[in-house]
């Protein structure tokens, strides 16, 4: 995968996944979810701008003039050329889609540490905002409640990864003695956790 400039399939997938995740966050009340929504809204804005550059380039290749593009985008011929006549930016603060490469192994280690009771090591991976929202005591209590409801933790099963702008979202199946649960962990490109969810019909939603 090209981690600097997304191809059309990756760009389309990233836009769809980011929009869905943002919509889900906007449905959830509370300031904790709003922190994640800010990052997702900014990521969606960057992705949309990149997509606009792509479709303008295709329109130009198909014979449309700068005047026509200016008319559609609400600017002048010169304004359209100045905005779209060069390649879209690829570096900060541009439109890079950067996958956190250790996301899968990171999720497996995360839940192994939770099972071992190493709460401090887990929180060391949190971003500042996530650490502020989820204290050591709250995280320990939430995990204790989870294993009380679902039984002993057995391990992480199937994993899928999604690119959401600058975030890597990992969806994982968690196996417990009494039931299975779904986990979702969102990483920044440098490996900081900005979202952690454990979902099961048998327990209240655990989220940050």
Shape: elongated
Total strand count, please? 5
Strand order of the largest sheet: 1-2-3-4-5
Tally of separate domains: 2
Structural class assignment: alpha+beta
- From the coordinates shown, what is the CATH architecture of the largest domain? Roll
Characteristic terms for this protein:
single chain, 5-stranded antiparallel sheet, 208 residues, alpha+beta, 51% helix, Nuclear Transport Factor 2, Chain: A, 5 strands, disordered N terminus, elongated
Q: Can you describe what's shown?
A:
This protein is α+β, with helices and mostly antiparallel strands. The protein has helices spanning 8-27, 31-61, 66-73, 77-84, 103-116, 119-123, 128-133, 136-150; strands at 153-164, 167-176, 180-187, 193-200, 203-207. The protein has two domains: 8-84, no CATH class; 103-207, Nuclear Transport Factor 2, Chain: A (Roll), CATH 3.10.450. It has a five-stranded antiparallel beta sheet with strand order 1-2-3-4-5. The two termini are 30 Å apart. Residues 1-6 and 90-96 have low confidence and may be disordered.
Set down the secondary structure blueprint.
Blueprint (H helix, E strand, L loop, with lengths): L7 H20 L3 H31 L4 H8 L3 H8 L18 H14 L2 H5 L4 H6 L2 H15 L2 E12 L2 E10 L3 E8 L5 E8 L2 E5 L1
Antiparallel strand pairs: 1-2, 2-3, 3-4, 4-5
Helix pairs in contact: 1-2, 3-4
């Amino acid at each position: 995968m090209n981690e600097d400039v997304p191809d059309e399939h990756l760009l389309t997938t990233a836009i769809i996944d980011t929009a869905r995740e943002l919509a889900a966050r906007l449905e959830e009340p509370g300031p904790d979810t709003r922190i994640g929504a800010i990052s997702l809204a900014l990521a969606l804005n960057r992705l949309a701008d990149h997509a606009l550059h792509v479709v303008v380039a295709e329109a130009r290749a198909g014979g449309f003039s700068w005047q026509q593009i200016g008319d559609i985008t609400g600017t002048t011929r010169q304004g359209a050329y100045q905005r779209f006549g060069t390649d879209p930016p690829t570096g900060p603060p541009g439109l890079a889609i950067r996958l956190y490469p250790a996301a899968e192994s990171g999720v497996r280690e995360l839940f192994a540490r939770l099972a071992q009771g190493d709460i401090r090591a887990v929180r060391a991976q949190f971003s500042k905002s996530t650490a502020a929202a989820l204290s050591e005591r709250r995280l320990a209590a939430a995990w204790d409640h989870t294993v009380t409801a679902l039984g002993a933790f057995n391990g992480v099963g199937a994993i899928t990864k999604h690119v959401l702008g600058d975030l890597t979202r990992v969806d994982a199946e968690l196996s417990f003695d009494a039931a299975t649960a779904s986990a979702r962990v969102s990483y920044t490109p440098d490996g900081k956790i900005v979202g952690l969810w454990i979902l099961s019909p048998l327990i209240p939603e655990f989220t940050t």
